[in-house]
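Sharing in case it's useful to others searching the archive later.

Someone asked me privately for the predicted structure of Methyltransferase type 12, so I'm posting the question and my answer publicly. Question first, with the sequence:
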Amino acid sequence: MIGRFDPALTGRDCWIRSADGDRTRLPTRRWLGGARITAADRHVDSALVGCCDGPTVDLGCGPGRLVEALCRRGVIALGVDISPTAIAVTRHRGAPAVARDIFGPLPGDGRWHYALLADGNIGIGGDPHRILRRVCGLLRPGGLAVVEFSCPGTGICVRQIRLETRTEAGDWFPWAEAGIDHAAGLAGETGFDLLTTADISGRHLAWLRSDVRR
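And my answer, the predicted structure tokens:
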């Protein structure tokens, strides 16, 4: 997966093409954060990180805007992304990050207080159950995951997608989506309890508590 989203991490115009022909523009400005994002985007970002008052890992951190926001508040935070470009951009912002596969060994495994899966990253690897189980394993018992889901009615689906710019097309890889109406079921099947959900500026967030008994 190295480099698949790299053009988007530097602000280029990018689209996701699915195997069925659908083409969707990526919100690259939102991902980069800073002065580029709207008031609505800031509202969502505040909700994503607002409860995080202890060590937090951002999985698939991309260019690191959420890690930077946490560090500015004095919260211990770490970005994780498989892309060296993402890690370089995040570190350039003054935020710590490591270039790792999130399914492999990671610093603080089993001890994080909070974990973030924002910007559709529940789709990483094409299996929402697998990634949520991994997140649960990264958290301490009773830790909290803040997860962005797709809109109600999306279902749980896996598609082959690729990134396209105005002049280039990447390789195909699996990506998943999960509607917010499946948050409770997915939580219960992966070691979490669903605490609450929210629709904020048209985006859908869920707060999942890892089982304190594990």
